[in-house]
Task: structure prediction
Amino acid sequence: MKKGLALPEMTFLVCLVLFATLSPRAALASGNKNFQFFAPPAEGALPDGPLGRLIRKGELIFIHTNLYAKKYVGNDLTCESCHLDRGIKPYSAPLWGAYGTYPRYRAKNHKVNTFEERIQGCFRFSLNGTPPPVDSETMKAIVAYSYWVSRGAPVGLYLKGQGIVRLSKPERSPSLRRGKVLFEARCALCHGLDGQGTQADLGQVAFPPVWGPHSFNKGAGFYNVRELAGFLRMNMPLSKGKSLSDQEAWDVAAYVDSKPRPEDPRRKLARSR
Amino acid sequence: MRFFPEQKARPENPCPSKSALPQRIERRPFEKRISRLTFFLFLAALFSPGLQSSAQASDQASAQAADDRASLISLGHLIAMKGNGLPGNTACAECHRINGGGMPSVGIPRIAGQTATYIYREVRGVQKGTRFSPFMDRIVENLSKRDIRAVALYYSTVRTPKLHDPAETDPSLQVLGRRIARRGLWDRNIPACILCHGEDGRGIPPNFPYIAGQSKIYLMQQIISFAVVERKDDPEGLMRGIASKLKNREIKAVAQYFASLTPPDYGTIPEKNSPERLRLIPEKETTPR
Result:
């Protein structure tokens, strides 16, 4: 009898402790190492009505960017190419890590950026296209989707797994030669020896091109070797993140960034003036 | 200079008889004509091989390739029907059926419309022991590389509708299976299956085979085979990593989901995904498309 009575109390206590340790604010602010990552609330229950439809549209834009936001995209990449798992996977610049950190001053354009302006940057550089206006349906949908996956994330606090991991300087300076060998051995399976990606059966883009005319341009964040190396270290090859060492990630990133790609649109602008 | 004196008489004679027409034409000397003829013949002989080679070489090459392909396919058909005649080699059709539909009830895979490059890779894997297959290793032991190429090419060209899969399905697992297939379980670093196996499991040839419409038993067998590292021919160890992270219930669910889909009916590789570009060929061999 005593055991029977004690059980519910115990479970209640365990739940309480779990809740206390896993609630975002306590865990994230204190840097608790046992805490994994922020996880958005379970999907599947989009609100009815216009908001739900807008969120759904944002999600579709995220997966099939060159179908649902065609006029703003200038290459073969999608949002999901970099923001894995529809912008939820930690260390691949997840949306829940970004949504609460704007407005923010960015040295890239020397001004305070809103979240919308940050998304415009994605379109302009990483997608090598034209930025959608702030009041456009596309922008509203993406922001609505970002809001949806960030529910419950604290605003303005550091979250474990946000952004892209910042690697420290490698022991040996990154070498293109080692990078080429690694790329051909481990990346060419999907991205091709010439880095131009793979097609699916009906001609859709399956694995994105990583350089050349259909890839991100020289203004993109990934044109920075450190940032690309951080992404590769945690996420590539798909499902086998962390299988490249820091040094290998730097080498491959240096090799990929040494290849030709579209010009930075800001430089083009400066030249035409 | 030719001059016909009879012509002058025409106006006087409005209806000239045959005798009035020119009877004698001044001709060039025979020797001169012959020499000119030989000269032209010589020129023709000089240029004709060059002309022929430049204009028809590509035609001949493509015709040759088509011929090779056709003869390979017919050889493959023969081996599929009867085996190659060497000891131990049974007809592929015994298990995979002549239409390549396999036997869903016992987990023998469907191979119709799978790309030739992939079938070749897998049969070679069985020969080398990287793909565990207690039935097939004795059968393919005596196949030469050309034989494998021929059979692979034959089955890649066969079109077969989906066969009935008698495995029982659990409706409560369908949602989970669909989720793993389309979304993955990223919190355990398991990407969506469709990222590599293509939209609706239709495959991204040549490295990633189609899995839609395979039988549930076969798919479960293979995932478990990857998980316990009996099968280790997957590039980069991608499937071994993913399979070892899946739980039994999830294996069942995802196998059931893909078994419920319709297989594609192509066996060709998109122009862009040439095997040479994608570092696929394990032993520097040219494989048929």
Observations:
- The CA atoms of residues 39 and 45 of chain B lie 10 Å apart.
- The interface with chain A takes residues 183-184, 186-187, 189-191, 195-196, 198-199, 202-205, 207, 235-238, 241-242, 264, 266, 270-273, 276-280 of chain B (CB under 8 Å).
